[in-house]
Design a protein that fits this description.
With 415 residues, the chain is of the alpha/beta class. The protein has helices at residues 19-26, 35-38, 55-64, 85-92, 108-116, 135-140, 155-164, 190-193, 239-249, 266-274, 287-299, 334-344, 357-367; strands at residues 2-8, 30-33, 48-51, 70-75, 98-103, 124-127, 143-148, 171-176, 184-189, 202-208, 256-260, 279-284, 305-309, 324-327, 349-354, 372-380, 383-388, 391-396, 400-407.
Length: 415
């Protein structure tokens, strides 16, 4: 049986290779890896050396090189931290004639922790290496974040985003060319890091003291007071209704949410504060509303809110698959909006606020049908105290019906 050994080479300095990794290289017929991963490694002269990175190219090379019995694939960093090792193992697992072994390396996280002489078991991890990273959303979670940035986002730009979101005092460590002779580690605030220039080979450690939005809304509960939002003549879902609607949507931290007919974006903001590791897509036809959505997102530090100018259902076609949908305004297109949501996700969670009896009838008919389960309808009737002289009288708000349900799944959905 042929053997493939996948090796974690560490941050880059070949002196950090383990004894097990070196032994595997010594007896290999072929050694494969990126140029940086192979640089400085003593490969025996009779061993085939291939500089490849992509999983498909590596698999193709191993398939074409029929004479090999022992292959080594060298990957930078550790094989368990944002590594291509997982994809390669999956790609090779279907070949019964290949035995795959994985040897871990020293991760950039553990190496940096050692250089800083501090523990790292409480860090959380994210990557901006070829993928989008909402750094403001990560900041709201507080704590210590280790961020892989090499070949991805620039530390200066990310720090600038933090400053704009109100996290300028976050403690940022930028580590460049870890383990190499010209290694450099810079520790400063996000405000001080923004604008600096760094080597492309870098990682970041960011320490957040707390959420920037705490000065505006320091609580985890829903129902932000109406007066905290930037207002205009655009309709806004009121505080009490928002609190109940968010409960009906049953959001999680990673959900993708549509807010259709988003108005000023009050529901979008509340949803974004819950789905901090997710995203909220606020669709609004009114240009003033789109502007208010963006202003409120900035005010609350919600970088995961995306204002989408347009009319539903047409504007929904290019949006990502939703986990939950709030239809704040339908302009007579409620059936088409519901259909668009179901086509994207047959198990989507929906909540429709209804002010008129006609909308209530239509929503109940749609969401109580066979394509849904968990149908609920409730009326939210709230009254607020208002000062009248030396006394307070309760002033009733317009009652709102909330109709909610979840797609029952089946054909046509992706989940």
């Amino acid at each position: 049986m042929r053997k493939v050994t996948i090796i974690g080479a560490g941050p880059g300095n070949p002196d950090l290779l383990s004894r097990a990794a070196l032994d595997a290289i010594d007896i290999a017929d072929v050694v494969i890896g990126a140029h940086r991963a192979l640089a400085g490694i003593d490969v025996p002269p009779d061993v085939v050396r291939c500089e490849l990175v992509k999983t498909a190219d590596i698999v193709a090379e191993l398939t074409d090189a029929a004479s090999w019995q022992r292959a080594v694939v060298v990957m930078t960093g550790d094989v368990g931290l944002f590594s291509g090792a997982r994809r390669l193992v999956e790609a090779l697992s279907g070949d019964a004639q290949v035995d795959v072994r994985v040897i871990p390396g020293i991760s950039s996280a553990s190496y940096l922790a050692a250089r800083l002489a501090r523990p790292w078991q409480d860090w959380r991890f994210a990557s901006a290496h070829g993928v989008a990273c909402d750094i403001a959303a990560e900041a709201e979670r507080a704590g210590e974040l280790f961020l892989v940035t090499s070949g991805g986002e620039d530390p200066s730009r990310l720090s600038g985003v933090l400053v704009q979101a109100g996290f300028g005092d976050a403690r940022v460590t930028v580590a460049e060319r870890l383990s190499y002779p010209d290694e450099r580690i810079t520790c400063a605030t996000a405000s001080e890091i923004a604008g600096q220039t760094f080597d492309d080979l870098n990682v970041m450690l960011i320490e957040f003291a707390g959420g920037a939005a705490s000065s505006r809304w320091p609580y985890a509960s829903s129902g932000i007071p109406d007066e905290l939002f930037i207002r205009g003549d655009v309709p806004m879902t009121k505080q009490e209704v928002r609190a109940v609607a968010l409960a009906k949507l049953r959001l999680t931290a990673t959900d993708t949410v549509w807010d259709v007919g988003a108005g000023t974006g009050s529901v979008s903001i509340e949803a974004a504060l819950v789905a901090r590791a997710g995203s909220v897509w606020a669709v609004e036809r009114n240009a003033t509303g789109v502007r208010l959505i963006r202003e409120n997102a900035d005010a609350f530090g919600c970088g995961n809110v995306h204002a989408v100018p347009g009319v539903a259902p047409e504007a929904l076609a290019k949006l990502p698959v939703p986990d939950a949908v709030f239809v704040g305004g339908s302009a007579g297109e409620l059936p088409s909006i519901v259909e668009a949501a179901l086509e994207k996700n047959s198990q989507v969670r929906l909540c429709v606020p209804c002010v008129t009896v006609e909308t209530l009838t239509e929503a109940c008919t749609l969401l109580s049908g066979s394509r849904f389960k968990g149908f609920e309808a409730c009326q939210v009737s709230a009254a607020r105290a208002e000062a009248v002289g030396s006394h307070h009288l309760m002033k009733a708000q317009n009652p709102v019906f909330l109709v909610s349900a979840r797609g029952a799944g089946g054909e046509g959905g992706v989940r």
